[in-house]
Amino acid sequence: MVIASAALSQEKRKRLRNIADNADRKAHNLCLNHTQATPNAEYVDYEDEEADCSSDISE
């Protein structure tokens, strides 16, 4: 009976570890999604600039 109890305990530990790993992975993904959705204050979107630079290009 001691062996069966130890095996069950080992299975429970594996299951709990799996649950913890999944929760950690989900939290990490949520953090990544948040940082990717949050604009960087230092980022400059040059497409919004109104200057027309097409005349600067010589052929």
Structure description:
The protein is mainly alpha-helical. Helices cover 61% and strands 0% of the residues. It is built from one helix and no strands. It has one helix spanning 2-37. The protein is rod-shaped. The mean pLDDT is 75.
Q: Name the helix and strand elements from N-terminus to C-terminus, one letter apiece.
A: H
The portion of residues forming beta strands comes to under 5%
The total beta strand count reads 0
Q: If helices are DSSP runs of H or I spanning 4 or more residues, what is the number of helices? A: 1
Gyration radius, in Å: 27 Å
Largest sheet: none
Shape: rod-shaped
Q: Calculate the terminal CA-CA distance, rounded to whole Å.
A: 87 Å
Helix content: 55-70%
Mean pLDDT across the residues is 75
Helix/sheet category: mainly alpha
> Low-confidence stretches at least 5 residues in length (pLDDT < 50)?
none
